[in-house]
Design brief:
It is built from 4 helices and 6 strands, in the order H-H-E-E-E-H-E-E-E-H. The chain has helices at residues 10-21, 27-41, 76-84, 137-161, and strands at 46-53, 56-63, 70-72, 88-90, 108-115, 121-129. The chain has a 6-stranded antiparallel β-sheet with strand order 3-2-1-6-5-4, with helices on both faces.
């Protein structure tokens, strides 16, 4: 049975993330706690962030197995979400052209762009599952809500850190 058949506790995650990051200005601490909350509360194999640094993205706070450290613009699911400035929901990463296999056990993925206060893509939230087609449109929308919360609560510190 796919995890998407069960209602995932995104509201609970959002409330916990909001309570954890409220008043904390440090973006590293906030992204680290956000990754930890999502990883512990939801059945995903990897949750983390990549931050834009010039013409590539660099690994940020994450939970799960070791990951690729740098991703080029337009490369893989993360680089594609950055280049196209849109959420990428991929049912089978092994069928995705240019997929970067940091963890060969990963089967499906959702990547959501994070914007700085100037509107440019600051980085991405990347979530992986070891199950094929594990993410519904509702999952993608819920993860977009997590990103909107981060942008609202810590947006100015994101833009200042680039």
């Amino acid at each position: 049975m796919s995890h998407q058949e069960n209602r995932r506790p995104y509201d609970e995650c959002l409330n916990e993330i909001r309570a954890t990051i409220d008043g904390e200005p440090d973006w590293v601490a906030n992204l680290a706690n956000t990754a930890a909350i999502l990883f512990l509360k939801l059945p995903f194999s990897w949750v983390g962030f990549y931050r834009v640094a010039g013409d590539e993205m660099v690994l940020g706070p994450f939970q799960g197995p070791p990951a690729c450290v740098r991703v080029g613009r337009g490369r893989g699911v993360c680089g594609s979400a950055w280049e196209n400035d849109r959420t990428e929901r991929v049912p089978d990463v092994h069928a995705f052209s240019g997929h970067i296999a940091c963890d060969p056990r990963s089967r499906s993925e959702v990547v959501v762009p994070i914007h700085g206060t100037d509107g440019s893509v600051w980085g991405v939230l990347d979530v992986d599952s070891r199950e094929i087609d594990d993410f519904s449109e509702a999952d993608a929308e819920a993860l977009e809500s997590v990103v909107r919360l981060l942008e609202e609560k810590i947006g100015p510190s994101l833009s200042a850190s680039i």
